Amino acid sequence: MGRQLKRVPMDFDWPLNQVWKGYLNPYSSQECKSCDNTGLNPATKKLYDNWYGFSNDEEEWIYVNPNRRYNNKAWRYHITQDEVDALVKKNRLMDFTHIWDKTKGWQEKNPPYHPTAEEVNKWSISGMGHDSINSWICLETRAKRLGVYGNCKYCKGAGEIWQSEKIKKLHEKWERQEPPEGQGFQLWENTSEGSPTSPVFASLEELCSWAENNATTFASFKATAKEWRNMLGNDLVVHKEANAVFI
Asked: Per the confidence metrics, is the pTM higher than 0.85?
C-alpha cells in the first residue's frame, strides 16, 4: 500500500513529504566500498561479477529466439559438474530431481536422478535459470575449488563498516517510533519509510475532499472524495486499471 491514513494531533507539525524522524535509525553503518557491499575478497568478488557478466571487457550476446538472448561470457550459463552437485545437494535443481504432484507437492524421483552440467546449462539458457541463492552456492563452490574463497578484509564479510561495536549495538536495539496519536486525520505515504503528504484535518470527510484534488492513489492517478472515503475506511488505497489492481 502506498498511501495510508494516520490519526495524529490537530497541532501535529512535521514537514510534508519528509520521512518521520521516528522511522529513521540514527545509528548506521557505511557501505563497504572495497567489496561493493558483497563482503567478498577481490578474487571471489571477480568471480561473482563474472557470474552475471558484469566485469567482462566484452559481451557476447547469443539469441535463443528473437525475444530472448543471453550473455555467453557470463559463467552462470557454463557451470561445472561439481557446482551442479552442490546445487543438487541443496535441493536447488528440483526441476531435474523431483516431480510435481498436485496433492503431495514436490516428490523426489524414484529412482533418484542427478543431472549433468550440460543439462543444467541448457536449462539455464532456455528458461528462468538460476536465482541469487544458486549463484552464491556456485560461487562458493568455484572459489573454493580455485583456492580463492574468502571475505573482504575490511568488512570481514559483512558488506558494511561500523564506526564501533557500540554504534552497531545501538542500531540493533533501536526501535521504530510512530508519530503521536490524536484526533486529526492525515494522509501518509509509505513507499519510503513513511511521511505525511497532507495537512491535518478535523474529519475524514475533509481529508477526502482535499485528497480528491491534491493526492494520487497510484502514480498520477486520482480518486473521488467518495472513493477516498471507502479506501481509507478499509485501510487499502488502490488504483484499478481494467483487470489490474495497483496497490
From this structure: no
